[in-house]
């Protein structure tokens, strides 16, 4: 299968070499790799140039944006800029972060998944992060049928059906919900162990939690599902304040009448899907 990779990169000189090296070693080679140099002021650009010489399918796109960390919107905006440079001749498209190391056979196995399971729209492995001893251990705070936003592969038909990625926090949740809305499945493979070099949530703060609550509003979760989802995250993180911050973000978005990310019909489907999952867990 033919596939293309888009890698948003903002000041990634520490990790980018490892990420691009893992792409270069893939047993199934991509047809193109676009690294979006998003307003970097470190050695990110020179690293991309170095790899472009080694492997001509690796291309650089430089854009100018804010230096602020904007969870969700900044990375998706960079991805969308890269998407504009792509040819249309791919079977699946990959959104990859600049701080992950993929196993050499990663995309060979992703291609097998898409070939063998025509209904699969999104596929990926699991993230492993270093603990205090330096050992890589699985860190997957979401459900096992969720693919982390750092290494997502989308079947072309699914990507087009859901209208690409939403430029907002929560994009890597709404994409899977919309994929299911359009009749596609999510597939995770436990054998695909991805090394994530930057611990999850390291750059997140109170502002990010407010945006998370806003995302739940814009996905049309409704208050009760937002409350349950926020409480679950707060419990897993051991941070009660994150529950309050999420709810504050939700009601701020509601009072400001922020535009929704999904249609009324999509929202109805999403709520039904969420309630089904919640009830399923309660009955276990």
Automatic annotation (TrEMBL):
Its EC number is 2.4.-.-. Residues 4-147 form the Glycosyltransferase 2-like domain. SUPFAM superfamilies: Nucleotide-diphospho-sugar transferases. It holds the Pfam family Glycos_transf_2. Keywords: Glycosyltransferase, Transferase. Gene3D superfamilies: Spore Coat Polysaccharide Biosynthesis Protein SpsA, Chain A (3.90.550.10). InterPro entries: Glyco_trans_2-like, Nucleotide-diphossugar_trans. One of its GO terms (molecular function) is glycosyltransferase activity. The keyword Lyase does not apply. The keyword Transferase applies. PANTHER family: POLY-BETA-1,6-N-ACETYL-D-GLUCOSAMINE SYNTHASE (PTHR43630). Belongs to the glycosyltransferase 2 family. This is Glycosyltransferase family A protein. It comes from Sediminicola arcticus.
């Amino acid at each position: 299968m033919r596939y293309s990779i888009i890698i948003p990169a903002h000041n990634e000189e520490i990790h980018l070499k490892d990420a691009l090296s893992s792409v270069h070693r893939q047993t199934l080679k991509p047809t193109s790799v676009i690294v979006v140099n998003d307003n970097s002021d470190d050695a990110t650009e020179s690293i991309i140039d170095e790899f472009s010489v080694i492997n001509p399918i690796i291309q650089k796109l430089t854009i100018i944006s804010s230096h602020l960390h904007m969870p969700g919107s900044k990375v998706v905006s960079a991805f969308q800029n890269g998407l504009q440079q792509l040819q249309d001749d791919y079977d699946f498209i990959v959104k990859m972060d600049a701080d992950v190391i993929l196993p050499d056979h990663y995309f060979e196995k992703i291609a097998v998944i898409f070939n063998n399971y025509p209904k699969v729209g999104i596929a990926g492995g699991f993230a492993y992060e270093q603990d205090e001893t330096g050992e890589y251990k699985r860190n997957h705070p979401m459900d096992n049928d969720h693919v982390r936003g750092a290494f997502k592969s989308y079947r072309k038909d699914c990507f087009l059906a859901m209208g690409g990625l939403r430029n907002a926090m929560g994009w890597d949740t709404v994409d899977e919900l919309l994929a299911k809305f359009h009749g596609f499945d999510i597939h995770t493979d436990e054998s695909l162990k991805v090394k994530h070099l930057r611990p999850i949530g390291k750059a997140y703060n109170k502002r990010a939690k407010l945006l998370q609550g806003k995302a739940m509003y814009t996905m049309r979760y409704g208050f009760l599902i937002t409350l349950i989802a926020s409480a679950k995250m707060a419990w897993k993180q051991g941070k009660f304040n994150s529950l309050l911050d999420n709810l504050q973000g939700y009601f701020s978005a509601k009072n400001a009448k922020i535009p929704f990310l999904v249609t009324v019909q999509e929202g109805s489907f999403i709520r039904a899907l969420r309630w089904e999952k919640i009830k399923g867990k309660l009955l276990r």
